[in-house]
Amino acid sequence: MRNVTKDNITDVFKSYMADDMPPRTHEIMSSLVQHLHDFARETKLTHDEWRQGIAFLEGCAAIESEDHHEFVLASDVLGLSSLVDMLHSSPEATSSSVLGPFHVSGAPPLPVGGDMKRGFGGPVLLAEGVIRDTEGKPIAGAEIDIWQTAPNGLYASQDEDQDTYSFHGLMTVGDDGRYAFTTVKPVEYTVPSDGPVGDILRACGRHPWRPSHLHYIVKAPGYRTLVTEVFPDDDPYLDQDTVFGVRDDLVMTYHEKPASEFPEGMVLSGKIEAPFLAVEFDVVLKRE
Question: Which residues, including other chains, have CB under 8 Å from residue 101's CB and lie 6 or more apart?
Answer without folding.
Answer: 68, 69, 70, 72, 73, 76
